[in-house]
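Quick check before the chapter quiz. The format below is the same one you will see on the exam, so make sure you can read both the input and the output lines.
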Amino acid sequence: MNTNVDPQELAKFSDLAHRWWDPESEFRPLHQINPLRLDWIDRQAELANKNVVDVGCGGGILSESMARRGAQVLGIDLATKSLRVAQLHAMEAQTLNVKYQEISAEALAHERPSAFDVVTCMEMLEHVPDPASVVLACAKLVKPGGHVFFSTLNRNPKAYLFAILGAEYLLKLLPKGTHQYARFIRPSELTQACRDAGLEPTEFRGLGYNPLTRQYSLSSDISVNYMLACRRPR
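Here is the expected output.
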């Protein structure tokens, strides 16, 4: 069940695992965008008292913040070192309502179909060989009427310029080689994958970065970084 994984991608994030919770590390962009995406998710899904699974949770930045909003959260990933960091941080922060499991989205969907009120899959689809398989697994994991949230990178010349040349080489916001342009996903492609999986796309939001203020913001511009909200019909 764990064939939809790129060993090089796992190794890349495992090597950086000890730096997940350093806000000035390679994961600084995730720390900066986390309040924006957390509020966006919470506004639509009302996280308090919801059962949530965070697919591709990494070191647990989003998982733990959703738990602090009152959700019961399960973070899943296949990077062992990242999960250990996430578990340790949750213990240190005494965030009791978050748990972590080393399992793929596809395997968990087989074990626990329709088990979650909310499914999040952020900054993950562009790192797997078959993103449509993950989308389908997320659709299977969510209850009828539940919410599914994705975020990824658009595939166009502007996204290459901003997300790879700009972020990795010029501004050095991310380590070189973090992203592979060929794995970026157009909004139309993600929308089709969601519909094929039985989800109803409801809202797109873009994430913009101002290099002068070094601040991120939500916008209607989905030409580079974007998020997509979906519902599973009842």
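If your answer matched, good. Residues 7-231 form a domain with the Rossmann fold fold (CATH 3.40.50.150).
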